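Quick one, probably user error.
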């Protein structure tokens, strides 16, 4: 990396925050530490601030990590966000990915693992010259989540916001069960019956769009949720 990476760290645990802050600076990063989400947001939006990477604890006073990430995504769609969580609950991960998280690290973790995650995310999100968009493959189908585009045989399909959020979660959890209730809360904000019926409609739409690749299947897992299988 040619330029020094500036990291915004939000962690309310005083000891861990100090440890992480010192470690990042020793590894050659510029790093600012905020003790709560509200202060982190103030730092991010300060006129002089320009952060290349964010590390947010989820459970924080005044403003939690999810709310902080949502606020930041309103003004910056691209800055990488790594969540730190004391829980390895799938619901938290789904909500974070729906907000636009790049990765998760579950406490306790080693400093080497933290550095490896930061390096991997920066490598993925680095651009050369012009603004390059992330491109994924779902089977043989090219998928651009940031632009909400699926490249199909009969042309390019622009996905709706909810189609795109749902497909992103399926792709991130490929060959694993995507919990139904957690997905509803992450995308629709509530897992009530009507939202459930709405999600079923969106799943049917995605199946129809992806059917041109016979190796792709979105399975219903009875009583649990869905699974994107790419054979």
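Nope, works fine. Designed sequence:
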């Amino acid at each position: 990396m040619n330029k020094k990476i500036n990291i915004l760290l939000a962690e309310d645990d005083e000891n861990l925050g100090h440890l992480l802050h010192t470690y990042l600076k020793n590894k050659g990063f510029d790093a600012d530490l905020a003790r709560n989400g509200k202060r982190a947001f103030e730092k991010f939006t300060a006129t002089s601030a320009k952060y290349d990477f964010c590390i947010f604890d989820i459970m924080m006073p005044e403003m939690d990590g999810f709310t902080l990430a949502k606020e930041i995504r309103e003004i910056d769609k691209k800055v990488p966000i790594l969540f730190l969580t004391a829980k390895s609950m799938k619901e938290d991960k789904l909500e974070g990915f729906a907000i636009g998280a790049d990765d998760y690290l579950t406490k306790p973790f080693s400093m080497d693992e933290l550095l490896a995650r930061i390096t991997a995310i920066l490598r993925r999100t680095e651009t050369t010259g012009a603004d390059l968009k992330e491109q994924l493959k779902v089977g043989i189908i090219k998928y651009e989540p940031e632009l909400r585009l699926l490249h199909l045989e009969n042309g390019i399909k622009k996905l709706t916001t909810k189609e795109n959020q749902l497909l992103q979660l399926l792709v991130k959890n490929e060959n694993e069960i995507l919990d139904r209730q957690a997905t509803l809360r992450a995308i629709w904000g509530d897992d009530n019956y009507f939202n459930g019926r709405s999600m079923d409609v969106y799943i049917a739409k995605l199946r129809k769009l992806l059917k041109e690749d016979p190796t792709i299947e979105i399975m219903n897992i009875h009583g649990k949720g869905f699974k994107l299988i790419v054979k």
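Residues 136-230 form a domain with the Arc Repressor Mutant, subunit A fold (CATH 1.10.10.10).
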